[in-house]
Amino acid sequence: MNTSGRTLRSRRGFLIAGLTCLATPVFAQQCRRTPSDALGPYYLPGQPAQTDLCMRDSAPGMLVSGRVQSFPECRPVAGALVEVWHADASGAYTRSIQLVHDDFDCRLRASLRAGEDGRYSFRTIAPGAYHERPRHIHFRVTAPGYRVLATQLYFPPQEGIDPRLLARPAQAPAGASVAFEFDLNVAPS
Questions:
Q1: What does DSSP say about strands 61-70 and 184-186: parallel, antiparallel, or unpaired?
Q2: What is the CA radius of gyration of the chain?
Q3: Phi, psi of 85, rounded to the nearest 5 degrees
Q4: Based on the domain organization, do 93 and 182 belong to the same domain?
Q5: Which structural domain range is residue 14 located in?
Q6: Do residue 17 and residue 109 come from a single domain?
Q7: The whole model's pTM is what?
Q8: Does residue 88 sit within a domain?
Q9: Which of 54, 75, 78, 87 stands 20 to 30 A from 105 (CA)?
Q10: How would you classify the pairing of strands 149-154 and 81-85?
Q11: 147 and 188 in contact (C-beta within 8 Å)?
């Protein structure tokens, strides 16, 4: 009995250890810090608080959503400021020397606040490529007690881009033709 009891405990311990090992990489992958990327030359502070970056476009657009979380705990960072901006389909940015007149109904820029659960979302149009750069959306995240995160979201397929910066396809809700998830994990200051 003593021998079989030890065997049972050993098997149980082995099974628990194995399941823990399987679960750990999934947790670690979800809680990895979001890599920084270039802020870019077209950042402009103080953009409007809007969740539709191109109001004049009535076609179902692209929904981008995710969570702002603390790294390494992955707890929601409520109220974090998420600033976003990107080029239009032709690769031009609003309020830059590339455009003679801005389209204020389609700025492709916004300042969003993460909710209590750390979630943010916005609707936009697909960004275009410019200067032979892959299609991307810029993000700048700030919150008291955390380092500023400047990063970019890239759209697959892209070679040579950190996989943590690639948009993850998500279920598109009504009013969007396509949806992507992008979590922003920020480190304490």
A1: parallel
A2: 21
A3: -165, 150
A4: yes
A5: 1-30
A6: no
A7: 0.79
A8: yes
A9: 78
A10: unpaired
A11: yes
